[in-house]
Amino acid sequence: MNKGDRTFGTGVDRLTLTKGSPPVSLTELGTGYGTLQVNLHWTAREENRSVREPGSGWRGLLRPTLFKPMEMPASGSQITSVDLDLGCMYELADGTKGVVQPLGEFFGDLQHAPYIKLSRDDRTGAPSGEMMYIDLGKKDEFKRILIFVYIYDETPAFDRAHALVTLFLPGGPPIEVKLDKRAPQARSCAVALIENKDGNLMVSREVKYVYGFQAELDRLYGFGLQWQRGYKPVSG
Known about the structure:
Layout (H helix, E strand, L loop, with lengths): L5 E4 L2 E5 L7 E2 H4 L5 E10 L14 E2 L23 E9 L4 E4 L7 E2 L6 E3 L11 E6 L6 E10 L9 E8 L6 E5 L8 E10 L2 E11 L3 H8 L8 E2 L5
Parallel strand pairs: 2-13
Antiparallel strand pairs: 1-2, 3-15, 4-10, 4-12, 5-16, 6-7, 6-11, 8-9, 9-10, 11-14, 12-13, 14-15
């Protein structure tokens, strides 16, 4: 790891994966067992008011569809409402593939395959954010895991929020990936890719923005999943 990729804060040694960072071995940094915690946290930038109509429910489209990029109004003084979601696509050693995400309520399972579980769906950017858990004791069951973040079509884009994904490794330093690129029309972002290399879990920074949704990320990484329309309920 380059010296410039290592940052310090609150007494904790943190690794920040930058564009030029090589893949990092989770197995060598951590204890090799326990639970990897993946956290998504964001804060909204001071921009124009949200374009979501009052009383409308959140929608998410999983089926491959052509989308016209949403035109963003001129910025003003209002705090933008932003709802980002954390998810992952996975491929297990036995060939099983799937997705873990709030949309469609695919929250996963930590005790059984895929040994990945999403704890909650945060719609506010609260300090706790959203957390995903990955059982490192089952590392031999994993072939690859693509961690991604997506945003709803009625919500302003990535340049309206400061987003950070942090991997908390038992026995090792936190690993950060910042989503700081100005991508005003992107709807999804591949954040990090975890791959099993001969029993060694390697994580690499991706930070690839796409204009479409999960199906477009799937095409980019070749998981070959079958996507269909999914919904999130209106928040109370």
